[in-house]
Amino acid sequence: MIHLQYDLFRRLWFGSLLAYNPRIKGGMVTQTTQRILVTGAGGQIGSELTLVLRDRYGGDAVVASDIHEPMTPALQRTGPFEIVDVLDAERLHAMIDQYKIDTVYHMAAILSATGEENPQLAWKVNIHGLTNVLEAARARALHRVFCPSSIAVFGPETPRDLAPQETVLRPTTVYGVTKVTGELLCEYYVNRYGLDIRGLRYPGIISSETPPGGGTTDYAVDIFYQAIEHGSYTCFVRPDTVLPMMYMPDCIKATVDLMDADFSRLSHHCDFNVAGMSFSAEELAAEIRKRIPEFECTYAPDFRQTIADSWPQRVDDRAAREEWDWTPAYDLERMTAHMIERLRQRLGSTATRSSSSAG
Ligand code: NAD
Known about the structure:
Layout: H1 2-17, E1 24-25, E2 28-29, E3 36-39, H2 44-57, E4 62-66, H3 74-77, E5 81-83, H4 89-98, E6 103-106, H5 112-117, H6 119-139, E7 144-146, E8 149-150, H7 174-193, E9 197-198, E10 200-202, E11 204-206, H8 219-230, E12 232-235, E13 242-247, H9 248-260, E14 272-273, E15 277-280, H10 281-289, E16 296-299, H11 303-309, H12 318-324, H13 332-348
Parallel strand pairs: 3-4, 3-6, 4-5, 6-7, 7-9, 8-10, 10-14, 11-13, 12-16
Antiparallel strand pairs: 1-2, 13-15
Helix pairs in contact: 4-6, 6-7, 8-10, 8-13
Bound molecules: nicotinamide-adenine-dinucleotide (NAD).
Nicotinamide-adenine-dinucleotide is lined by residues 39-40, 42-46, 66-67, 85-87, 107-109, 111, 125, 129, 148, 150, 202, 204-205, 212-215, 217, 358-359.
């Protein structure tokens, strides 16, 4: 009951603020041309997202940016690439002006495992970088901004089996703290300034094309490379560790679907739970073994086990299904079959990969 009243209040309050943004008319965000900036475009999600956005809107309409040259050559081949540190607000504004940007996908971040190694850096990039993007959006009246969140917003006090959309958010990692703060800050800019900011709580993302960037779910990618290249893997979480995961095609689809959604249907904006699949490390190993029978997986949990144990095993994504019709396409079996097929093709060719861990 209290929640329904709050929801009604949010809708009324937000409705009264729509007039603040000239691009939001009568509760509908008008579709203007898309001139897009992707920050952190060299990362695991950014590099694949950028290429999909370029397919959709044209290469020149999507500016990829990162703090260093990307490892994916296609990012520079298919459209503009700029070095942009999101901590440099002046450069961010200059890029928005130079390319007449109206939409930002803010993918630059420090992920969970790297964040625990350098909490101050995680706070700086994830909070000051986000603030710079939000301020640029406000100053330039940007059309729409995407700011990803994470299942890392949850903590040990969140129900583990099916984390609700509205629940206790008391994370134990600095990464989680920055993501909760980020969600609240984005929502504040929606309510206070009438900006159109949207975001998803991504689960662990698994990709056949790009390596993960320093998170706790990296094992679910590393295991495939090791199984194909060496026939064995030492996993850094226990076999019974269950976490929410998503295959990259679903991650990109969720991102694009949310950004395409009719604004007037959204009662949430920056914090959607979104589910793909959930499985334990040993279920993943068993699924791989169906296709690589000689594969052996051993387990040597490290500091990332504690992070994994603080996250829920599944998330309740009814809000995403109801407000913008979210449906994933990949389950464990389909994802595993596709990963192994793609990696066998890629590793048989010229593909290289940095060693890393994930988000
Ligand atoms: P990633 O680590 O692979 O990529 C992040 C990119 O940001 C890197 O290319 C890095 O060079 C760049 N970057 C770091 N500091 C920067 C700075 N100061 N200025 C500009 N760029 C900078 O991360 P990802 O997996 O692609 O994640 C993208 C977003 O999705 C992040 O917000 C992350 O928190 C979120 N997320 C990812 C996962 C996952 O499993 N990959 C899960 C949940 C949430």
